[in-house]
Amino acid sequence: MENNNELKIITDETLMEKRNHGQPAFPFQYYLEDIWDFDFHTLGWHWHQEIEFVYVQSGEAHCCVGKDRFSLPAGSGLFINTKILHQFTAEHPTVIPNIVFSPVLLASPESFVYQQYVKPLLVSDIPYLVFEPLSLWHKEILSLLNQIFKTQEQPNFRELTTLRLLTSIWEVLYENMESRLQQGQPVKRDLNASRLQMMMSFIHSHYADQISLADIANFAHVSNNSCMQIFKNGIRQSPVSYLIQYRLKKAAELLANTEMKVAVISEECGFHDVPYFYRKFKEIYGISPIEYRKSNL
Asked: What pairs with residue 101 in β-bridges?
């Protein structure tokens, strides 16, 4: 991680990540990240068209994938399917080398290989898979992942070797998931997940306004109680807690990247009581807004 932009997950209003992963000619990107380095020690909620493989090199990653919550200890890994909302948090330094790539890298969408072996998993009801070293085929995938990570350091034939190893991973995946995939289970549509995404998007668009719980709930056409339950089930936070956290995140960005006065930033981010803004900022970041600005000079 080389600059502050790389320590933030930047999304659009639907929570789709804006970052390009790789180049059009080779849509693959390797990241070596420490969750602890991100704001709130969190890689915030996001999704992308690409698929992702994560390995926990050290520490322990707390994962949120859709509605599911689980922890990954060092030595374990994770596959996240296309378009799946996810987030990672940590309570101490946690290094997670990971790769994000387009499935078209494996084969052309019109090809037999893609239709027969790639697409069935992408459109299945499998949002993610956890890999644990005690399982033989999981261990094989974890080994291949680590080979891919090491390959990114080699000067010659890096892309060719990466593609070969990715194909090997997919072969192991398909071989061990084939029976489930052939059952033809339809993709499960979670209405509340869509509502949660709608309400989070509403907060992202209106965080600077004086919005209430009722405003957030009305946007998704649900009651206040349903709104609170959807947030609790989806991201383990109340709507108001998420709103405050998002406001603080936007304030931190302005503190780091502009020379605006703290009082103006407070107002711009929906905090109309400056002492309250100071108190909440220090509660979350551990330092005052002014100290945060100085640390980012």
From this structure: 28, 51
Mind listing the pLDDT tens digit for each residue in 235-280?
Answer: 888 999 999 999 999 999 999 999 999 999 999 999 999 999 999 9
Read off the pLDDT of residues 206-228 as tens digits, 9 standing for 90 and up: 999 999 999 999 998 899 999 99
Read off the tokens for 174. Answer: 């398909």
Query: Based on the domain organization, do 199 and 124 belong to the same domain?
Result: no
Query: How many domains are contained in the chain?
Result: 2
Query: Are residues 253 and 118 both part of a single domain?
Result: no
Q: Are 30 and 148 in contact (CB under 8 A)?
A: yes
Residue with tokens 């998420």: 242
Q: What is each CA distance from 274 to 76, 268, 278, 281, in whole angstroms?
A: 44, 11, 6, 10
If one compares 187 and 208, the residue with the highest pLDDT of the two is 208
What are residue 106's phi and psi, to 5 degrees?
-75, -35
Give the Cα separation of 116 and 112 in Å (integer).
6
The three-class DSSP label of residue 195 is helix
Q: Report the first-to-last Cα separation within the chain, whole angstroms.
A: 17
- Same domain (yes/no): 126, 205: no
Whole-structure pTM value: 0.74
Q: Virtual CA dihedral for 100, 106, 108, 113, nearest 10 degrees?
A: -140
For residue 257, give the CATH number of its domain.
1.10.10.60
